[in-house]
Design brief:
Strand content: 15-25%
Number of strands: 21
Length: 640
Amino acid sequence: MSFILTSLFTVQAQEEEVLFTVDNTPVLASEFIRVYNKNLDLVKDESQKDIDGYLKLFINYKRKLQEAKQLELDQKPSYLREFENYKKQLAKNFLADNKVTEALVEEAHKRLQTEINASHILIKIDENASPQDTLEVYNKILNLRERVINEGYKNIQQEVHNGKTIFAEDLGYFSAFKMVYPFENAAYNTNVGEVSKPFRTRFGYHIVTVLDKRKARGEVSVAHIMIKTDQDNTQNSETKINEIAKRIEQGEPFDALAKQFSEDKSTASKGGLLKPFSSGEISSPIFEDIAFSLKTVGEVSKPFKSQFGWHVIQLKAKKDIASLEEMKPQLESRIKRDSRSKVINDFRVKTLKEKYTITENTNALNYFKSIINDGFFDNVWSLPLNFEAEKTFLKIQDKKLTYKDFGQFLLKSQRNYNNKSSKISVILDKLYETFLENELQKYQEENLITENIDYAQIVEEYRDGLLLFDLMETKIWNVSKTDTVALKAYYNAHKNNYFYPERVNAVVASSAKKNIIKKVSKLMSNGGDFETIKNLVNTKNQINVTFSSGEMDKAHQALPKNFIFKEGISKIYKHNETYVVVNVLNILPKSPKTFEEAKGRVTSDYQVFKEENWLKELAAKYTVEINEEVLNKVKQVLKK
């Protein structure tokens, strides 16, 4: 593949104008224009949008690639493995049949709007069972279907379920993507109250009884306030969330209290607002169930506990399943990971069989059936000594595949088969089909790079990006993390850059009522301690004030903006739609961080420093010659 890529772009280099060379290796003007336009919207630094500025970055990029190749990083097994995996994954996007995918997307979207409550009976059978065994199981499931229809599912369930070979289970409600695709098909194509015809999945033969179909719950948007659970004192967390809930009940704005008290830092500044979610998308079932139980916008839950802490949540919006257009990218991604992807693959293989000329050796498969034995199931089978490795097994177009190719495929495959009740001839027929499918797809992928320029360009970009990552890891990142002596030396030379900002040790009181905060301020001024003041202004049934305490810098959520650090009782501030007063117990001045405390930041800064010096070395090592005439043409094109 590397040879094909190099050849392809060498031919293009001969046909197109060269913008610059790096040690006589040409870089095309078309490549620079394409990469510049592609990355323009991603560049935040305005100076890098300047063509000359971007050219400098691009030259550094190419120098790094030259260095990576000289270090033979492109020969590393780990690099080659990752690159090959990426190419295969990318090829799927280019080779998939869009019409089949679109049909599956539309079907999945329609099914997501309905949830099914069902029960099923499964008789397990090996995928590679003989035709006789398969027929026997089919007749058994057919008989059970008749009994379920005539006697009722519950009666049959208790009798036949053994949890080993036969499963009779209640599945509850589910929708698209929750079951393997053949099972999903049977469930959605069976009417309520009816029993499906027998169908097969990789597990065995099933029948499914559909008990109910209902409209899906859709999507919900909520805000929450979370107080983390204190393992040493869970009562404190529960008390605080109950106080906050009481203040909400008394009419204080939910989002203001979330901004001030929620310990979910990712949402506190947004008033606790979470991204909209649907069933199964939140890792806490109790959180999800309570969110969906809220009926009207603005409704607030009672405090409840999840594995993350204590919460109260407020309903912001509810909507049904999103439109097909909105969900299409998400559905396409799920289909590729789902068992229904086999439908896409089967159609692709069928198309390839029609597209390419396949010449089969009619005796080849019979030969392999004659040399294979039960050692295959123990992963000890091997090819015979007189094996005719170079004999033609089959041909795809002009590509010859030998007995050795199929033999090696069988040797690798035997580890997946350990059920001696399976019939070897059945397994071999399936493995032949799998081998043929793999080789057809491989042949198409091998030719894709010469047929599709978009694919070729993306592959080249990833190849270079992967090389660059390995190079940076080798030369900069790993060295910066492990060279403690150099890090300490850099820290000692730049100590003034690493410090704790000025902080206060303070108690902050917050209330929606200004007169209450005035009272708290007065009590603080008179020397009242924290607990005494709290008991005076709050009661069991009336929470008027919430207190926060500890070390806080100027950016702390409890402190008002532009708060002036001064020991003693502050003035009363309006902050996040509430009133606050701050008792600054003492001020912690700006202080230097030790090496260990600043190590993360030091490492990052040192990496920048090391890379800057390394780039100077690369500039001296790799000569760059710019074609000024071509550069002027490039500038004219990019400025249009």
